[in-house]
# Entry
Amino acid sequence: MKSASDLQTVVEMTRSIPCAPAILPKLLKLTEGSSADLGELEMLISLDTGLATNVLRTANSAYFANTQRCESIADAVLRLGSKTLYRIAATTLTGRWLVHPVRGYGWEPGDLCRHSLCVAICAEAFAKTTHLADSSTAYTAGLIHDLGKFALAYANFSALDEIASRVPDDYLTWRDAELAVLGFDSAEVTKILLQNWGFPQNFISVGFFYQKPSEAPEEDRNLVTLIHASKHVATQLGYGVGADGFYCDPDEAALEAAGFRDDEMDAAIPEILATIQRFITPEGELNFR
# Structure
């Protein structure tokens, strides 16, 4: 079994990954409500050259463009609006962190990013119909819910191979196998990362409890359950699902308490797929615009 000190090693190793989504809490706060501070949004976006470029490119794309081109971030902010701007920023920042090559979990390059994006899109769609959370909050929670798995894979633990073999051999969930082999699990890594980056408590609860929302604090349970449901739908759709994807049991009690019904979730799938196809090409390439 790995010692508990390895948990800190995993967290420390992620410091070498550029573009951690640490500015997302501030961006989310700026875009909440109906009166976002556009000047502060402009300043924050301008601090990241890649993000600023992507915002300008999107504002001038065929979908958003009019007869006059946007030549500045200020113009782009006004054209896109705070909600669209936040979505672009959240997907871009999280996506850049998650596309680094890693081993483990049976992933191909970019798989975790593809899967997290699908969970985010499902969460946004379900937030609109269930009213369990604000759609921007739900979208962000979907993007960041499984960052600990990426951190474990980035740390290149040979133990991931042992975890993969223990799941079918011992009839364990993937989380149980992580605990048995490592002494901690990816959810604990996610929790520490989100705490270090200053995410609000409801996001930290998502990272730690999304596999078992019945155990989440009552004040965060709606959002956690929303991500739990979104995770299962995204897994069924198959985008970027790793070897761990089908070794997580649904929390039927939490889903029922939150009002999720299989027929309603199935009915939302065509709209969800249409949105996913805007961001993921048929070849599996990611398009954060």
The mean pLDDT is 80. Residues 205 and 216 are 7 Å apart (CA to CA). The first helix runs from residue 5 to 13.
